[in-house]
Input
Amino acid sequence: MNINWPEFTPIAALIGGVVIGIAASFLAIFNGRIAGISGILSQLLSYKNAPKGHFTWRILFILGLLLSGWAYQIFHPLPAIELTSSMPKMIIAGLLVGIGTKLGSGCTSGHGVCGLGRLSSRSLVATLSFMGAGFFACYIFLHLFN
Output
């Protein structure tokens, strides 16, 4: 494994983590909600069952996620993206992630950022499971099947 040192940006990563933490804290403190992307999106897709007033902030949250890359590129060029997997593999991977978030009662943002911040033991187990499965899958697909 080689580390691309020019692309290693710990200061930018630290600043990004602090901003994510502040945003998640604000959502919890001022809106009483957890900033779990899968929960926000699933409630948005089933808006008939969502409590009143939750539709607008969910739309704005998702729009903020989608527009943040565009806003970032105004100040700094985005890195080149090189997809090395086929589209069917990417679709299957996305479906597996969706199934995993449903089975795990949340995603890495909900459990890893918000749940661990609240010292939730369930979130600790979920985050360790996500990370372990990711490490295992990377090892299998990058070293054994490549």
